[in-house]
């Protein structure tokens, strides 16, 4: 049996878990003042405010939402009007509002969708065609986009009275798995990515993982630490094994990555990020986990670098197994980690505060 007691003491939250006869007391100290009840949104408010300040302008986001509509339901491009509104409309939260368009509607807009970001507008559009028009929007393998039930322009169903207001219940909707990046997405071109990002926007995803092109960033960073391209060819995994190599499960297998491939992935990543930002999303970028090329040990002989054991690699062959991990308490870890974040900012701009590794 487990019992949890939560008590608020000034700035600290005390939780007592009694599991059998084990008593664990966890004190979590918060820099910011806690309200009466523990509020996650409150704790991340400074991050939310900072990220909001990086958001694309309302006109960029309105155009981006309109472009989603143009690709997804081009026959109704003029049936909807989109408008970015301030979070004040929903008490500081993200939200969308669906209203009847007030004004002359001959061949013009019938429905007005307001949202705090382009993602909110797109998810409001999805809400409208789902609940008012009986349409279905899914991935291709689970039914695809089914829009036959959407009435022709000029006959769209009206919403009642003051309309529909849907407030986002949590600030972030995260999407994507770190391994899918290499098993599936690595084969995608821009056209396929564009379709997926449109789908994300329609589903209300506002915190997508953006893992493409990271080897191109690593190449620039490690070269700054005197690691040669030859050393990197003995480090990066091939396209289908990126996730394995990124996590230090193997190296080299399926590689090397060609110069062209690295360049093309970086170009693709910049396109992906631009679109995510136009839609008001917060991309999640990679960061440093301590996984380093073998040559780093030679260049920095005093660094605390541990060689890992074999973990399910090809024939346990050292050509592919047993990678190297830099200890996180080593000053070199901070140097490399910082250089990586800075190189991303140089290439992509200061677009996020949220990282995954
Ligand atoms: C990299 O090599 C250059 C030239 O040999 C040297 O001046 C520099 O100190 C080296 N940097 C590191 C981080 O070892
Ligand atoms: C070096 O790293 C290993 C493994 O991460 C750790 O156990 C050890 O304490 C570190 N040594 C020093 C001197 O920091």
UniProtKB/TrEMBL annotation:
Domain Alpha-N-acetylglucosaminidase tim-barrel: 174-356
A Pfam family: NAGLU
Alphabetical list of Gene3D superfamilies matching this protein: Chitobiase/beta-hexosaminidase domain 2-like, Glycosidases
TM region positions: 12-31
GO molecular function: hydrolase activity
Record InterPro entries: Hex-like_dom2, NAGLU, NAGLU_N, NAGLU_tim-barrel
Residue stretches making up the Alpha-N-acetylglucosaminidase N-terminal domain: 64-157
UniProt entry keywords in alphabetical sequence: Hydrolase, Membrane, Transmembrane, Transmembrane helix
Keyword Membrane attached: yes
The protein's name: Alpha-N-acetylglucosaminidase tim-barrel domain-containing protein
Species, as recorded: Gossypium mustelinum (Cotton)
């Amino acid at each position: 049996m487990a019992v949890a007691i939560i008590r608020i003491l000034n700035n600290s939250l005390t939780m007592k878990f009694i599991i059998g006869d084990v008593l664990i007391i966890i004190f979590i100290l918060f820099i910011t003042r806690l309200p009466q009840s523990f509020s996650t949104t409150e704790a991340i408010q400074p991050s939310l405010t900072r990220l909001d300040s990086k958001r694309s302008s309302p006109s960029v986001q309105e155009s981006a939402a309109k472009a989603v509509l143009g690709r997804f339901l081009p026959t109704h491009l003029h049936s909807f009007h989109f408008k970015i509104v301030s979070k004040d409309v929903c008490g500081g939260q993200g939200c969308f509002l669906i209203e009847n368009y007030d004004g002359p509607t001959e061949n013009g807009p019938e429905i007005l969708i307001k949202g705090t970001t382009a993602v909110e507008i797109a998810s409001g559009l999805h809400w409208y065609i789902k609940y008012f028009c009986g349409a279905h929007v899914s991935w291709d393998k689970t039914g695809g986009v089914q829009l036959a039930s959407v009435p022709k322009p000029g006959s769209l169903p009206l919403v009642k009275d003051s309309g529909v207001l849907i407030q986002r219940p949590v600030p972030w909707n995260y999407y994507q798995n770190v391994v899918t990046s290499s098993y599936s997405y690595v084969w995608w071109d821009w056209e396929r990515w564009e379709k997926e990002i449109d789908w994300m926007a329609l589903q209300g995803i506002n915190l997508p993982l953006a893992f493409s092109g990271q080897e191109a960033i690593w190449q620039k960073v490690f070269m700054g630490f005197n690691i040669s391209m030859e050393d990197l060819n003995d480090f990066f995994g091939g396209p289908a094994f990126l996730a394995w190599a990124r996590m230090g499960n193997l190296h080299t297998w399926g590689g090397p990555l060609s110069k062209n491939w690295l360049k093309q992935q970086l170009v693709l990543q910049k396109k992906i990020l631009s679109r995510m930002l136009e839609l008001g999303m917060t991309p999640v970028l990679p960061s440093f986990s301590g996984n380093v090329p073998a040559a780093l040990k030679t260049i920095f002989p005093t660094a605390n670098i541990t060689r890992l054991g074999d973990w399910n690699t090809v024939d346990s062959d050292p050509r592919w197994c047993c990678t190297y991990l830099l200890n996180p308490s080593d000053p070199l870890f901070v140097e490399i980690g910082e250089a990586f974040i800075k190189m991303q900012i140089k290439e992509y701009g200061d677009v996020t505060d949220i990282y995954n590794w």
